[in-house]
From TrEMBL:
GO molecular function: sequence-specific DNA binding
Organism domain of life: Bacteria
InterPro entries, alphabetized: ArsR-like_HTH, AsnC-type_HTH_dom, Dimeric_a/b-barrel, Tscrpt_reg_AsnC-like, Tscrpt_reg_AsnC/Lrp_C, Tscrpt_reg_HTH_AsnC-type_CS, WH-like_DNA-bd_sf, WH_DNA-bd_sf
Keywords from the named record: DNA-binding, Transcription, Transcription regulation
SUPFAM superfamilies referenced in this protein's UniProt entry, alphabetically: Dimeric alpha+beta barrel (SSF54909), Winged helix' DNA-binding domain (SSF46785)
GO cellular component, one term: cytosol
GO annotation terms (biological process): regulation of DNA-templated transcription; response to amino acid
Coiled-coil annotated spans: none
Record-annotated HTH asnC-type domain positions: 5-66
Alphabetical list of Pfam families matching this protein: AsnC_trans_reg, HTH_24
Name of this protein: Transcriptional regulator, AsnC family
Amino acid sequence: MTVRIDDLDRKILSELQRDAGQSLDEIAREVGSSKTPVWNRIRKLREGGVIGAQTVLVDPEALGFEACFFVLIRTSEHEAEWQAAFLKALRNRPEVLEAHRLAGDIDYILKVRVRNARAYDVFYQGLISDVRIHNVTALLSMEEIKFTTALPL
């Protein structure tokens, strides 16, 4: 289903991206509309797949997950069976926050959040025991300079 998005929809989406916990009244006030049209538009955007699951953002460092690694993976394996095993291994590891297949010299990049370097090594050892990987390079993020989940609407 294709959903047409107008300026009001974009304003509503921007407000939801800013704080999805707002009441309908608050969103309606911010976008210059009333509650019922805002609710109808949100419902339309959900049904159309524009709005997915609603969650909360948790501060990883507040929970002791102080190390963020970007893991660059090169593989010499490109068969469907290997890819299925690799994807299963990634899905079974909650430390993997993001995984992307890339064009270029690197095949995959992972964003991995763990408590410390020792926890990363446990993750790494488990991954390479589950699936054959040609080369792994781990880059430790020294500082998160910008983080957002909001799209520039």
